[in-house]
Amino acid sequence: MKKITYLIGVISLLALVIILILSYQMTMNYKDENNQNSSENIKIIFDDDLVYDGTGELDLLDGVSAQGEDGTDLTNRLNAKIVLAGNDKEIRYSVSNDNGQIVYKARNLVLKNYQGPEIIANDHLNFDVKDLSNLVTVLNGRGELKGLDGFGKDITNQITYQREKVSDGIYRLTFTLNNIYLDSTSLTVKANISGAISDPILELYRSSIELDVGSVFYPEDYIKIANDENGNSIKDQVKISSSLNTMQPGVYNVSYQLTSSDNSVIVTKNLEVKIR
Fold first, then answer.
1. Which helix (H) or strand (E) is 257 found in, with range?
2. Taking burial as the number of CB atoms within 10 A of a residue's CB, which of 155, 169, 210, 218 is the most buried?
3. pLDDT, tens digit, for every residue of 137-170?
4. CB-based contacts of 203, cutoff 8 Å, min separation 6
């Protein structure tokens, strides 16, 4: 009797395994060889990779169509966006039918003669505080700043920047440019800015301290002033970073950083901590 019960149990287990395998295979059948991940009721159709060399406008829907299960043309419902797939770029298509059923399909995007985004700027800039409200346009008009998309097309208007105060009237400007191909680049230059500037203020009580091994250290206690450009205290918005280990003798750096409300200004202070 025990042998029969054991045999029935084994058979039941094998049957369960077979059911799971068949279920998995049925699920995988929903994906076709071109990575279409939904039922066979909707089809997104294209032949090859999309190759673009910078000539004309990039049309992500070039050569793509979509059909419903009854042959209905769903091409006008297609959506497309560029995504990253490891080191490669893909176009991710999606389309839905009247029942709300959605399918997705990926297509390789091949960029020929593509150099990546580029920022061209003078190493040292001079301008007035009034130019800050429209700085990229002002510098571009003077021939001192330009942004290219990777195919030589001008996308200067997509450049953003942050400034970091070095001393009164002297700043580091970091320009950043993102293009539609999901690539980005940055460039840091020096700048002299004339006129009165309302920047966030960050001050520490000390620039360096010494502590015994095992001492308790609270970095927030060393913030003297942290005000926004309007003079309001924002100590809780100071970002503190450090690898300090009070149990290990050595010299460490604690970095304090305060960013303006519009994210255009960064103020940084450093505290040197010696653990003895």
1. strand 250-259
2. 155
3. 999 999 999 999 999 999 999 999 999 999 999 9
4. 223, 224, 225, 226, 269
CATH T-level topology, domain 118-194: Immunoglobulin-like (2.60.40)
80 membership: H or E segment, kind and range: strand 79-85
pLDDT tens per residue across span 95-106: 998 888 999 999
Fold of 201-275: Immunoglobulin-like (2.60.40)
Intrachain domains 29-111 and 201-275 with the same fold: yes
Tell me, what amino acid is at 134?
N
Provide the b/e sequence for 258-270 (b: ≥16 CB within 10 Å).
bbbeeebbbbebe
The pTM (predicted TM-score) of the whole model is 0.75
Domain ranges of the chain: 29-111, 118-194, 201-275
Tokens of 251: 């010299």
